[in-house]
Amino acid sequence: MNSTFFKQAFLIFAISFSFVFTKAQEYKYEIGGMAGGAFYMGDVNKSSLFKELNPAAGAVVRYNTNFRWALKGSLLWGKVSGSTDNTDNVFPGAMPVSFTKNIVDLGGQIEFNFFPYSDKYTYAYTKRMTPYIFTGLGLTTSFGEGNTSAGVNLPLGIGIKYKLMNRVNIGCEFSYRKLFGDNLDVTGDNQLLDDPYKMKGSALKNKDWYSFLMLSVTWDFGPRDRPCNNENSYY
């Protein structure tokens, strides 16, 4: 055998090897980071979206059960703040009050994609971009200014994601986190914002909220086996 044969054989092997490892696949998992802003809604901000927007960042992981549904876990940090200055409300004693807190949010959510999400399998009517909604349950820890608290939160959100390339996803989401307490805006030096009007509350009334507006980049991993070309396999 001459050297030409070995060169041709090596070339065929290299092309075949390259094809195996560059072939587009569907993946089960995503992991990545998020960055954006956080703001608070409560006694000193009843209805103004994005008022006193502060930085936020975190990590996210998803398990894509199929084209429509995903389970997501997230660990987020954000800063929230508020002030009674320039508000329409008149607080007891007319004393100015402000606060700044750090929040750490650990949560799990379930997502529903409005379109079957993938950049492959067009016979299954998949789309590389889709809006989605999500809800779940989380744990919030807040700290700063001499006061630390922890409690359960209920996340409600909407977002959009786009398959930028085979393994890379980008997205943007907005969410409310409803707390079941009224002390997110309470500091060690000032207890005024802990039920300032002494009104009887409930689980859905007179409680604090905070929100995240986040951009995300995630990386797919964990190839999914594709047993057949049944268009219902991922639904």
UniProtKB/TrEMBL annotation:
Domain DUF6089 spans what residues? 15-228
SUPFAM superfamilies in UniProt: OMPA-like (SSF56925)
Listed name of the protein: DUF6089 domain-containing protein
**Organism, scientific name:** bioreactor metagenome
Q: What is the lineage of its organism?
A: unclassified sequences, metagenomes, ecological metagenomes
